[in-house]
Amino acid sequence: MSWAASPAAAAGGADPGPGGEDPSDPGGQRRLAWSGRVTGAPLRLRSVSAWVSVVGAGVIWLALLGPVIALFTHLSAGAIASALTAPGALDPLVTSVESGLVTLCVLFVLCTPLAWMLAHGRLPFPRVWEAGVLCSLLLPPLVIGLLLVFLVGPYTPIGQVLAWMHQSATNTFLALVIAEVYESAPYYVLGAQAAFASVEPRLEQQAALLGDRPRRVFRRVTLPLAAPGLAMALSIAWARAMGAFGAVIIIAYHPAGIPLQIYTTLQETGLASALPYALVLLVVALPLPLAAYIWSARAGRRRRG
User: Fold this and answer.
1) Sign of the torsion formed by the C-alpha atoms of 49, 51, 54 and 55
2) Nearest CA among 11, 8, 31 for reference residue 19
3) Helix (H) or strand (E) holding 5
4) Residue 213: inside a domain, yes or no?
5) What range defines the domain where residue 201 resides?
6) Which CATH number characterizes residue 250's domain?
7) CA distance from start to end of the chain
8) Alpha carbon 122 to chain centroid, angstroms
9) 270 within domain boundaries
10) 154 lies in a domain?
11) 19 in the Ramachandran plot: left (φ > 0), alpha (ψ -120 to 50) or beta?
């Protein structure tokens, strides 16, 4: 048995390098060096491309957060305290929170069945139904307010019915809720539809095969699995309702919520005095969507893992 790695090594020569190259051969060394440069160039290009992508994403992220950053840089603790401690300064906040909670209840009760039927294809001509939801989503809020005047105004059939019930859909709390419902409903319907569509039909079918009735399947299987997505949809509708302005200023100028307070303060005393109320709106509207997003992301990871 020979212990030489190769005939060349047994003869006292050097072993061939990778690929059969002889390291003692200057030509072979040049070829190996060139091969290393060729393979290293794409690695450096990929590294540079990755850094450029990260920097670009950071610039876009900062640009999107630019208005929030500008808000905090132009506010002071004294200005916030003096604005929010004035008599009646927080009354619009209470109005917005109350109307927002009522809006969420209305959306959950009335729009959840529609979203479930859209997700499961239980409606005839489903594309027509989806197109209707998208049309309401794409309508400018100011146009929604103008059209609501012709739908629920005092001289319309609905308005006359409301007047017979000693109610009104203009410049009342009911009008504020109606405007917020119309501005936020499409966001909830589309989000809830996606949440129901993400539930695996196989799990619902297995529960039905085990003898559960449809209502029990919905309560025990569909609703818990879709709950993170539904929470995300509700939270987005909450933020949209809290910031509703275009339709509100047309049919519900009174009672004033936070968006209208920002507008009237801006008109009366200037931009700087309206910033504290803008901060209040952000503090009330944003935490719920952020919490729902974290819950939905964790639930999705648990489901995949």
Assistant:
1) negative
2) 31
3) none
4) yes
5) 89-304
6) 1.10.3720.10
7) 55
8) 26
9) yes
10) yes
11) left
Nearest to 229 by CA among 119, 134, 109, 96: 119
Radius of gyration of the chain (CA): 31
Tens digits of residue pLDDT in 9-32: 444 444 444 444 444 555 555 554
Structure tokens of 213?
Answer: 């009735």
Give the DSSP letter of residue 121. Answer: T
Tell me the residue type at 255. P
- The pTM score is 0.81
Phi, psi of 198 (to 5 degrees): -75, -15
Read off the pLDDT of each residue in 239-243 and give the average, rounded to a whole number.
95
| Packed helices 271-285 and 77-84: angle between N→C axes, nearest 10 degrees | 80
Domain count along the chain:
1
**202 domain residue, yes or no:** yes
For the segment 248-298, what is each residue's pLDDT rounded down to a tens digit? 999 998 888 999 999 999 999 888 899 999 999 999 999 999 999 999 888
**DSSP-derived secondary structure for 139-156:** S-HHHHHHHHHHHHSTTS
Sign of the Cα pseudo-torsion (185, 132, 134, 149, in order): negative
Residue type, 247: A
Residue 239 CA to its chain's centroid (Å): 10
Residues whose CB is less than 8 angstroms from the CB of residue 5 and which lie 6 or more positions away in sequence, other chains included: 15
Element (H, E) at 105: helix 91-120
Task: Compute the average pLDDT of residues 90-105.
Answer: 95
Look at residue 167 and give its three-state secondary structure: coil
